[in-house]
Amino acid sequence: FKGGDTCEYLLSSGRFLGEKVWQPHSCMMHKYKNSEAKNCLIDKHVVFIGDSRIRQLFYSFIKLINPQVKEEGIKHGNIPFEDKSASIKVDFLWYPEVNGSMRQRIKSWTEGSVAKPHIIVVGAATWSIKIHNGSNEALAQYKINITSIAPLLEKLAISSDVYWVLQDPVCEDMLSESRKMITNEKIDAYNEAAVRILNSSSRNSKVKVFSVSKLIAQETIMKSADGLHLPESSRDTNAMILMNVYCNKIMKPIDGSCCQPQPPLTLIQKIAFCFFTLSIIAYLIVSLIHRNNYRKNKSCTDLESGEEKKPAISTPNVSTLEMLLHCFCKLGLIMTYFYLCDRANLFMKENKFYTHSSFFIPIIYILVLGVFYTENTKETKVLNREQTDEWKGWMQLVILIYHISGASTFLPVYMHIRVLVAAYLFQTGYGHFSYFWIKGDFGVYRVCQVLFRLNFLVVVLCIVMDRPYQFYYFVPLVTVWFMIIYATLAVWPQIVQKKANGNCLWHFGLLLKLICLLTCIYFLSYSQGAFEKIFSFWPLSKCFELNGNVYEWWFRWKLDRYVVFHGMLFAFIYLALQKRQMISEGKGDPLFSNRVSNVLLFISIVSFLTYSIWASSCKNKTECNELHPSVSVVQILAFILIRNIPGYVRSVYSSFFAWFGKISLELFICQYHIWLAADTKGILVLIPGYPMFNVLVSTFIFVCVAHEISQITNDLAQIVVPKDNSTLLKRLLCIAGFFSGLHFFSAMQDQSRH
């Protein structure tokens, strides 16, 4: 499917999602705010010429600039509007018929040094039908008049945006007696004449035909007050379409893909393209050489002795190089797909539209699948590997459904999804604390391995998709929290389980460290200035700034500020209880004594449901977000206890969810560009016209790509981050050089943009 002209699609085709949300064919429509509309139209002159229907469109358009405007102008006269703060002029000129008077007005703009309007919106026909009682002579005269006007409009269209608005259908049963002659048959005849004449006036007509209003009217004219004029919501949709047609190429909104040209390749993107191309070529060459060597050195028989000779040739360096090139080759092909999906105008994009069924039905479906694939765990410890993978898996699938269904508009769902994000961070605190506490391994190798696995994909996407690091907010979040956990435990005195077992006082020392960490978190969460100063220093500012400031980073960090600490504290308490054999983790055994287990299970279920009731009753997102960091741990702990106290429940897991859990990070990041679209604001459309089939196909590709990237990351981690310290140091110097070069090219890129 070719991308086509999305402006043409925006002006001519689309459908309703629900009752009020208009979805243009193949592209996304941005909902302009007043400030955005003013910035786009600053120092512009817009003119609407026509009858009462065009006057309606005029009022809807100026309300996008100033919502306080009231429809109090003269009904059958000119209406001026001016916004002095932005130097915007919008005029309505009353010309209800396409006649000599309209022609003279349009001609005046084509002559001499008269200032031409930047946008001209013209349309009329119903008055001609009404005044002349729908006669054929009136239609013939209409054709003559529009033929004389068409060349003038073409001349204006060279320097201005000119739109001819086709006539909307009417609801004939609702028309008054004085308008009964205005039939849809007559309107179609006038529209057909206008389109034919405007398209034939020039080989490549620059006058844009605004025909989408007809489609909108067909769905909504029944709600009209008089059968002729559109209801307010439909007029507002038409005005928003006009705003998108003109402003998208100027404002370049992320969620407004209609009428936006493909962004030019940046210098860094060109370098990345060359690198991946060379990697593919090099891999093919190395593969051919390797295969030829293999054939030459293949086992052969010695004719004299009759014994088999085996080549004594070992090529570990070649195989490592081949593996490296193979990874970059696959990655290059995958990144090409990313670019084509979300940067090139090759595939279509559509807006999200939330309905309860679009969220809850897929949730029920995946839960049934998850239960169906139930298996026994290899070990029965609390939060064992299979269980944490399962937890990550079902949470990730729920989050994916939440994103594609646009469920963020429904506050109860939003609050529950916030708990799932917090649970990921809780696992970060729990997992990394447990590792450092038990293993006592604070070496550089461990740190580099974790940082590489977390950040590799995001760094590549920042380069290929031309997005800042902070755009993929979750990865910076878990990266910073990992470094905080590492710093807390690695700083002197290093307190680990082995040392604490020898002297119980070390436990108090560790608790003191955790209290210091909690104090720092509390201080930074209520001191935005101090937080911003820390992350505004170079080079941190390059990583954490978004749109020129670190406010977004502060907001994201603050939203789940305590949950990592809660995860660390839970790990400490659990491991202490486990060491003292105060919990029973045998297969089928309850975690505590029957009485204690039943009491804790009851409290956990009540706590879980209480939190859900509170989250479902939320009315204000800001107020609920303020409480969320302190109370989200209630539902997380309740879930852990419900999942682990009964022995049978702890002994089984869903292999279906666990499989997705192993690639949860890749799924979360890849969804930005190859499942969703326009940087998560819309939905990728690979197969237009078949929404369900499209979701199935795009999901299959998306999951396969995420799985492949997970394998590539694991393979590259073994090569890029070796265990040998001297080799690792050399690699770290190479990585430092890579980022220095990246910063240099980024600075050159920014300079050329400015």
From TrEMBL:
GO molecular function: N-acetylneuraminate 9-O-acetyltransferase activity
InterPro entries per record: Cas1_AcylTrans_dom (IPR012419), NXPE4_C (IPR057106)
EC number, as in UniProt: 2.3.1.45
One annotated Gene Ontology cellular component of this protein: Golgi membrane
UniProt domain Cas1p 10 TM acyl transferase: residue ranges: 251-732
UniProt key word Hydrolase: no
Taxonomic classification: Eukaryota, Metazoa, Chordata, Craniata, Vertebrata
Ranges that cross the membrane: 267-289, 323-341, 353-373, 394-415, 450-466, 472-492, 504-524, 559-577, 598-615, 657-677, 683-707, 728-748
Predominant location category: Golgi
Catalyzed reactions: CMP-N-acetyl-beta-neuraminate + acetyl-CoA = CMP-N-acetyl-9-O-acetyl-beta-neuraminate + CoA; a ganglioside GD3 (d18:1(4E)) + acetyl-CoA = a ganglioside Ac-O-7-GD3(d18:1(4E)) + CoA; CMP-N-acetyl-beta-neuraminate + acetyl-CoA = CMP-N-acetyl-7-O-acetyl-beta-neuraminate + CoA
Native source species: Drymodes brunneopygia
Keyword match Calcium: no
Subcellular location: Golgi apparatus membrane
Alphabetized PANTHER family for the sequence: N-ACETYLNEURAMINATE 9-O-ACETYLTRANSFERASE
Domain of life where this protein originates: Eukaryota
Stretches assigned to the NXPE C-terminal domain: 22-72
Annotated protein name in UniProt: N-acetylneuraminate (7)9-O-acetyltransferase
Keyword annotations of the record: Acyltransferase, Glycoprotein, Golgi apparatus, Membrane, Transferase, Transmembrane, Transmembrane helix
Membrane topology label: Multi-pass membrane protein
Record family assignment: Belongs to the PC-esterase family. CASD1 subfamily.
GO biological processes: carbohydrate metabolic process
